[in-house]
Amino acid sequence: MPRVDVDPSWMLRRPRRLWGLCLPTMLACLAFGGTIAALADPPEPPPRETPNRDAVDFFESSIRPLLIDHCYDCHSVEADAAEGELRVDDGAALLSGGSRGAAVVPGKPDQSLIVRAIEYQDTSMQMPPDGKLDAESIEAIRTWIRSGAVDPRQSVIDESMEDTEQTSPIDRDPSTHWAFVPPRRIHADRWQSIDTDDLPHEPSDPLDVVAMDAAVRHGAEPNDLADRETLIRRLYFDLVGTPPDVDQIARFVSDERPDAYQRLVDRLIAAPDFGERFARHWMDVARYADTIGYGLAGRDRRLHGSERYRDWLTRAFATDMPYDEMLMHQLAGDRTDPGNESGNLDAMGFLTIGRRFLNRHDVIDDRIDVVTRGLMGLTVTCARCHDHKFDPIPMADYYSLYGVFQSSREVDEKHASPLAMVDVDKPRDAAIFLRGQPGNRGDVAPRRFLTSLRRDDEPRFNDGSGRLELARRIADPDNPLTARVMVNRVWGHLMGRHLIDSPSDFGFRTSPPAIPELLDDLAAEFAVDWSVQRLVRRIVTTRLYRQSSAVDEESFSADPDNQYFARAIRRRRDFESLRDSALCAAGVLDRQVGGPPVDITASTVTPRKTIYAMIDRQNLPSLFRTFDSASPDAHTPRRYFTTVPQQALFLINHRQSVSLSQSLAARVRASVRQDSSGVDSDDPAVLAGHMVRLVYGREPTDQETLWLTKFLSDGAMSFQQPADPRTLWTYGTGRIGDGGVEEFSPLGVFQNDRWQAETTFPSPGRLGHAFLASENGHPGPGERGAVVRRWTVPRDGVVKVTGMIGHRNREGDGVVAAIFAGGRRLFRGTQKSNNRPLGPLTSKVRRGDVLDFAAGAGPTGNHDSFFWRINITLTADDGEVIEADSRRDFSRPLDTSGPAKLDRLEQLAQVLWISNEFAFVD
User: Fold this and answer.
1) Alpha-helical segments (H) within 782-919
2) Which segments of 651-740 are extended strands (E)?
3) Residue 421: CA atoms inside 13 Å, Cβ hemisphere, count?
4) 136 close to 358: Cβ distance less than 8 angstroms
5) Is the pTM higher than 0.90?
6) What digits encode the pLDDT tens for the residues 670-698?
7) What is the C-alpha separation between 95 and 153, in angstroms, rounded?
8) Torsion angle (degrees, nearest 10) of CA 625, 630, 633, 638
9) What is the rounded CA–CA span in Å between residue 867 and residue 865?
């Protein structure tokens, strides 16, 4: 799917309410059975040529080494060979081709002769002749051609005639480039020299002073502050990823304390969700996945223990572990916590969680890349085959680091952490691979730090592999790059635009930020105590962060790219926030922290947060690509956001989205009945108002109320009973409360003819032996471990419940059983060592109510297997009788590929999912 950079000019065309002008069209589409194909507003931004730096880096790290290793011997000037009149040692020669025509057709791998040759499609043209390339290498070449075949190489012949005395990048003094100069705080003379009376607004921080001054000087008038409703939504998105509810918004808006904003910031930073939010950001940097990628035949592709790295990140950010300490554990946890007593050995997943290439050289290359680009913003892997073309990084630097990782090995799964690396018994330096060819060795490169950052007379690495010494040099506060790179990443997450647009490349091609003081002041302060939370707190309390995102034409013309931050930036929700916000609105979000990865692509809803999704890098589900998730194949500097029809189609048509719409509608009906106080709970205006409050956290406008009421009134509100009665049952866990089951969460796995929490049984998470089968089950431990059969009432009427419950163990203290109908308790008791008939129990119910049959553990939590058969008879108000039988209706996940039958309120939920107000933050 092509990516489209967002052109900020479209923001000038947006209405105040992002979806207001297109809502009638969306409602009409659904009312007449149509399908909404895309987010209607704003229109897809026009394509814009994107910088090809990433493409150049991909060529240098993945394509040039392949050509050198397998093609240069027969098709290069250096080898004095051009078989078939084809040379592959410069871009123009590849495009012109040889006697058979062009070797590469950019954008069209299937029409490129080089692909035909390496795939051995033609018996007369099979290259390389000594054996077919592996699948990874072939796919890399296809990807390169598909993305445009970017090739920065100049003609080798022309290069040979150039002045050999010309200065090479490796001879340039690094101190002449801004990124290699130590960052400094804003000097008091600098910001105090600016007359704040000349600024349009009162600053909150020296950063505000220099930024407003720069914006005014460039003709961009800084915006007023955003209103409180906008600010709380923005903070929740940035710091925890889920939206505030209407009550939280109301409390903040009405809070008259002068430090109300600071209190909100502190509360959100202290929430467990903060750790999850920033862990997911770092997982992009660390190319996180739960599988190894291409694997050898018969080898398990699962990266065992991958979740331990993800959970370590969550804890580290939640507890505000200093960033330099985080780096030390991620690079040398085998030395900082060798026995994993503090869990910090799991941090080495940063190195070991990458793709496991069939070629060991590529595995090491991947680790060099994630360390140098991820932590210091340097593209060192471009020096694998030659001195870096742009930066002062000679090949010797690459092979110095190669020796470090060559002298480290992975451990087996029985180690204190399966993610660890340890030093080999006899660490050794690596010889430089001339032209990147392992069989063509040059001088030995001693293990040491990068040339451009080494101090005078700095010794080589002598402590084992050198990873610990490497970690210390990267985390050294005197390293001018480390703090800058991290500050730039955090700023980009919070502000919507990085200070440096290439977050993982601070090399000589990269210009300084438009306002250098912002990056330098934050970086210099950050390197004092390395507190990520303090960095975040400072940024979000600046006036720059709290500005409105409104755009006026004059300021936009003066600064279209918002380099001077005269306004906040309207942002799309990322995939994690979008999905988690939908789960939250539907009332099914499971906030449990940590645990094994779960499948979020099945037909049934998995309520876990999206950070806990199983990431299969070999077979990454299209859902992740559709919503612009980070690629797990390599380090991702930043995400790009697209607007494509597949996004809205998923939000309308996928069974998970349909199920969430049904859950949201049921929640609205239950909420209306609970709060009705004599109000007609079928009043379309009341129902619409509750739904808007749950999804958007605000009251609908008068015009919206008219549209929504008309939509709900035009269609029959009655719930059509599904043809298959099994669809009325849901199986999950929760807490048995006084007025119903609380914190209900569906069981996500059907295996061995039963519903359970995870594929591993018993679950290694908090639910242990919890399961439900057709007639029996077992609760999990603790109050939150009750197992629940839930039946959704399809019609208004009277329900009658009968059945039999049993506990057949003489040991233990039995199970606690409870039955609720529409939030009213019909039965509660302890069942131990016998069988008991239940019922008949009767209750008046309304459509959308749920009948919960819950079984929880006793005080000891032992010997809690139970038997329960349930019969339900619903006599609808119109006289129709509907029967349900828990044994007969018990089912695996149903094939729900056919069209779902949704009532009007459920369709309205679909409309709100695909609106811009839900998809955008401001």
Assistant:
1) 886-889, 904-913, 916-919
2) 729-736
3) 27
4) yes
5) no
6) 888 776 655 556 789 999 999 999 999 99
7) 12
8) 130
9) 7
